[in-house]
Amino acid sequence: MSVVVARDDRSMPTTDPASDRVRLRRMASRAVYDRAAILEILDAGMIAHLGVVTDQGPIVLPMAYGRNDEWMYLHGSVANAALRAAIGQDVCVTVTIVDGFVVARSPFHNSMNYRSVVVRGAARHVDDHDEHVAALRAVSDHVAPTWDGGREPTAAEIRQTLAVAVPLVEASAKVRHGGPVDEADDIAGPHWAGHIPIRRVWGQPVPSEDLREERPVPNHVASLAGQPL
After folding, report:
1. Which residues pair with 11 in a beta bridge?
2. Beta strands in 81-135 (DSSP E)
3. CB 3.0 to 4.6 Å from 200: which of 10, 140, 173, 229, for a disulfide?
4. What domains can you pick out in the chain, each with its CATH number?
5. pLDDT tens, 68-97?
6. The pTM is what?
7. Quick one: CA torsion of 7, 11, 16, 17, rounded to 10 degrees?
């Protein structure tokens, strides 16, 4: 991970936010508006949470996602109520990566180290066939390049899958790293303080129990083992 970040009490250089509604107000020193850094966090994440208002009230659901330079893609069944409600509506999509737990001398100052992105905008139904397929490929290959490693989806399967696109225009990131920010009086006290990094790595691939014969693990899957997430 190479995103430049700052602790709570240290400001960092930023560009201007794309809009005032994605401007960080609390802990503004953690703000990251640089587009390349925002995309880097999106590429490192695995799950997005889509927030949308439905006829039954607001709902937030975790979803796999993918992207290109202009759009963030989300997908699900054509019966997915949240995705259907999102089409043509203003939505909020968030991605969060937790990098560690921060232990302060007082629980009041405990925190977490993290990288997070908020994307806001009107969700668009991806109804063009070529873009639809490209969107599904982007979601499939976001974590690992699996699209070309298996059977190509049928036309019926593609029709059963709904894809929506959210423009990567109004987006901002919030990032924290390092240790706690304690009160001066507490620093002189007897209590331990520090942070505990969280290391996420891929494990060894486990073959499906219904494989009919021994098959080698594809290189694009085997190469993940032991690699950091």
Report:
1. none
2. 90-103, 111-122, 124-125
3. 229
4. 20-199 (2.30.110.10)
5. 999 999 999 999 999 999 999 999 999 999
6. 0.88
7. 30
